[in-house]
Amino acid sequence: MVSGIIFDIKKFAIHDGPGIRTTVFFKGCPLKCWWCHNPESQNPTPQKYISGFKVNETIGRIISVKEVFKEVEKDIIYYDESGGGVTFSGGEPFMQPKFLAALLSQAKLLEINTVVDTSGYVAWKLIKSMLSYIDFFLYDLKLFDSKLHYKYIGIDNSIILGNLKKLLQLMDYRQNINIRIPIIPTITDTSENLTQIRDFLIQNNFSGKINLLPYNPLGERKYEDLGMYYKLGYIQPPSSEKMEEIRDFFLERFNQCIIGG
Amino acid sequence: MNDRIRKLREQSLNATPEISIERAKLLTEFYSSDAVQQYSTPIVRALAFKYLLEHKKICINEEELIVGERGPAPGATPTYPEICCHTVKDLDILNSREKISFKVSDETRKLTETLILPFWKGKSIRDKIFQAVDREWIDAYEAGIFTEFMEQRAPGHTVAGKQVFQKGLRDFQDEIQESINNLNFFTDPEAFTKREQLNAMHIAAEALISYAERYANLARSMASQAQDQQRKRELEQIAQICEYVPANAPRTFWEALQHYWFIHIGVITELNTWDSFNPGRLDQNLFPFLQREQNEGTWDENFARELLQAFWIKFNNQPAPPKVGVTAEESNTYTDFCNINIGGLTTDGSDGVNEISYMILDTIEEMRILQPSSNVQISKKTPDRFLKRALKIIKTGFGQPSVFNCDAIIQELVRQGKDLIDARLSGASGCVEVGAFGKEAYILTGYFNLVKVLEITLHNGFDPRTQKQIGLKTGELSDFKTFDDLFSAYKKQLKHFLDIKIKGNQIIEQIWATQLPAVFLSIIIDDCIKNGKDYNAGGAKYNSSYIQIVGMGSISDSLAALKYHVFDNHTIKLPEFVKILDKNFVGSNEFRQKLLKETPKYGNDDDYVDCLAHNVFEVVFSLVDGRPTSKGGQYRINLLPTTVHVYFGSVIGATPDGREAKMPLSEGISPVQGADIQGPTAVIRSAAKLDHLRTGGTLLNQKFNPSLFHDNIGIQKILHLIRAYFKMDGHHIQFNVVDAETLRAAQKNPEQYRNLIVRVAGYSDYFINLGSQLQNEIIRRTEHQSF
User: How far is B176 from A8, CA to CA, in rounded Å?
Assistant: First the structure.
């Protein structure tokens, strides 16, 4: 049986796609966003976490597809009722392609709706090979300028934009993608960045929903507990006025844009 | 709300609960008369009722539209010395206690000492009950195995059916006369007894009609003196209404509300019939009046809303009569548990939501007062719009309305043998209890402490607190080789104590049946008139006696901890484990942490422990359900606590789930506070593993962070959560939408949080009015977040 490494399974996830969902958090991410509020998701192997409350807890565990579904199946009645299902998030789910493919096909066998929450930094052929098992994407767009992307995230964004373009060429996905934009003051909230993202989405006939995720400083503590360095330093979360301004900017051209998950 | 309602609402909120000695005084006067010797018991009760209504002070409060109070003024609460006679010491406690206090005047104190107490000592039902029950009953009661509802409250759990809104008391009197005419003295050995009962009902009906006439006269004389022309007209209208109802069936919306209110005053003046007498399916019951007035062109929606608001305030003017002793511990609140039902189905099984349903939701939201309590009955046919509207009120955080599964309730009642149409006319009352509205006496007889029985089992029948051998000798700890051995000992103890409780009930119910009939209440509950039999004696169409099971979460976790650590993983021997409990974990903190954090807990959708909850449920069910009561009905179970989980916890030492001595138990079928860490879907799945359809009600409370209800998406998902629970046959769910930070702040600065209302169990209360144990218990409940 195929296994993988995850760091959490959360039930009653209500911001990770349609309906009531169970979200499986994969461990390991090719991106190193300065503002990442789940830094424990970055390292692909289990790691020690030392905090005031939880002494020496290990984050991440090896788990089989069967064990994942033992939990996921429990909430089928909620998925049926709400149009929900299972969401694979992380980390980057595509970093464990065999595991993800096995989970997706098992979900489809059980007729459970699937969402993949991805950074888009994946080889297209991997995405393509699993497309028939994926009902819906949560797709992150952070910075349009490739230099800035490299600076704050550690990698080039051409693959991310390229994959999104290809996905949007498939009629099925134009509506079945939520674009998620983290609003990090002074970094992603510049009018230049937001205009570029908006233009890109218009050019590619995007017609789904946009989620604006305000910067959440709560992740900072975790860096210390994980023995990691928090490069971002202190920034104020964006004001609600600023968030509304950005929302209205997107609503000028798109039907659906909301603040938060 | 307009100025009038604002004023009436303020007056109600600011009324200081005080003890009114008026009823006790009048009743003592009456019982000192010769009538008591002259007549049969039901006639005496009817004449007593008449005497009270003839002599009690009446008032029409300034600008009021609906008239009539239980006491002489809003907040003034009578006592019922024939049931429970407060001692001077009780009064001093009520007067001085910090929470749920009642002001006691010097006159009240003096009259109690000189008149009331000397007269009623030894004659009250309470005294008689404690005289009549067995020693083993007293021992178990004192140990905290169970409580007894009827030792200071009348067995009144029932709700008005639609017939109350369709008939006047004159119509009921005609039925009484017909029933008398039909008596066959040659074949029916009870014919005379029945005639006495029926004559008593006739007198009681007449008494309430005369009481309404007193109001008509008062209104007329106030009208003649009124300066303000509008008020003058209103008072004249009030006079006309009080002349017409409750004697005759109401014709208009206003008459319907006033008619019910007189009936309500009658019921709660006759006896302190807690819980819950209320207008039942109010939207259904009022709808014909809306239709009629719309047809006749007299419908004024704004005025109808004003009347509903005025009606709401009347409930809030009546604090629950003051309780003492264990009863105060099990239900320490001003709430009198009137729980108004809206939504549900009609008699033909179609969706029952109508215009009035939405008007009532608006009223609940706008009034935002503790009484009456309210609930929405949700069937699979109920439109989402209605449930969403209710959720938008719930999200404001005062725990109203609560949410019920109407389809489950109907199945519960049909399983008990009720007619399907009767079941569709029914609902929930009190906290979560089901009953056939207008047709059933469904008496709560007392709470039963599941966890205390385990403690007794682990001490071979001995109660460590009262130092008495009150249970059976079911074995030394070293005798239990397997978990099944232990569980079967627990079962034997459960049977032992449930038998004691039921035997006590048989005695207590007969004391009520023969000595304190409820002749007025009997008029309006089917089929007391037809049967010529009192409500308290089994005259209703259906009769059920409930034992309310408490501590489901705590018992499941405790049994799971024993099974897991002693029998499955062998990490500790049972005697050693119990020794640690007896020492209340002193010196064993590490082990306690293991119990708290590394042991399966109910509420996480984990079959290891949920199966144990299921097993306990099945055992208790089989020991109680279907057994015959002394009144020709059956015993049933339901699972709800009011505030008794705090008292029940206070009599138990440390428990195997890691709970320290004297701490509260879990409430309803909710998980132990803080033990549920897998989110609300898991809690609901665990709770649904119990068979709700074989109960008369279960209570599940969930605490949600307000952020979850923040937007429409959140509300939509909560709606799905409820629908899914109801698909799984869950009976009831309610939410506290408040964060722990707010609650802690309210503990620190109560004066700033005077209006903070929270859901306690099956009812809401002002947070600052709760005892600190209960406040802490609510804070410790898991707060589901969105993420």
Answer: 69
Beta pairing partners, B103: B18
Owning domain of residue A24: 3-259
What's the number of domains chain A is made of? 1
* The three-state (H, E, C) secondary structure of B684-696, written as one string: HHHHHCCCHHHCC
CB B80, CB B321: distance < 8 Å = yes
CB atoms within 10 A of CB B785: 12
Q: Report pLDDT digits (tens) over A132-183.
A: 999 999 999 999 999 999 999 999 999 999 999 999 998 778 889 999 999 9
Tens digits of residue pLDDT in B679-705? 999 999 999 999 999 999 999 998 888
| Cα gap A119→A138, rounded to integer Å | 9
B306: nearest Cα among B1, B759, B94: B1
Q: Give the position of tokens 């009681």.
A: B204
Sign of the dihedral through C-alpha B677, B681, B684, B686: negative
Q: Are B551 and B453 spatial neighbours (Cβ–Cβ below 8 Å)?
A: no
ipTM: 0.90
CA B539 from centre of chain: 21
- Whether B433 sits among the annotated catalytic residues: the reply is yes
- Parallel, antiparallel or unpaired: strands B701-704 and B732-737: parallel
Q: DSSP for B438-481, please give it.
A: TTEEEEEEEEEEHHHHHHHHTTTTEETTTTEE-S-----GGG--
Is position B431 annotated as part of the catalytic site? Answer: yes
- Separation between Cα atoms, residue B279 and residue B694, nearest integer Å: 26
Beta strand extents in B507-639 (DSSP E only): 542-550, 634-638
pLDDT at B644 over 70: yes
pTM: 0.94
Decide: residue B468, CB within 10 A, 0-12 exposed, 13-18 middle, 19+ buried. middle
- CATH number reported for the structural domain that contains residue A84 in this entry: 3.20.20.70
Under DSSP, is residue B716 helix (H, G, I), strand (E, B) or coil?
helix
- Chain B, window 475-514: residues with a beta carbon less than 8 angstroms from a chain A beta carbon: none
How far away is chain A from the Cα of B593, in angstroms, using its nearest Cα? 12
For residues B102 and B191, what is the distance between their CA atoms, to the nearest angstrom? 45
B/e letters for B259-277, b = 16+ CB within 10 Å, e = fewer, are bbbbbbbbbbbbbbbbbbb
B491 close to B514: Cβ distance less than 8 angstroms: no
Q: Can you tell me the distance from the alpha carbon of B737 to that of B733, in angstroms, rounded to the nearest whole number?
A: 13
- Find out whether A143 and A157 touch, Cβ atoms under 8 Å: yes
Rounded-to-10 torsion of CA B167, B170, B173, B174: -80
Instruction: State the smallest CA–CA distance between residue A78 and chain B in angstroms.
Output: 6
Angle at B533 between CA B531 and CA B535, to 5 degrees: 115
CA angle B523, B526, B529 (to 5 degrees): 50
pLDDT the model gives residue A56: 67
Neighboring chain A residues of B708 at a CB cutoff of 8 Å? 14
Nearest beta carbon to residue A82 from set B605, B680, B720? B720
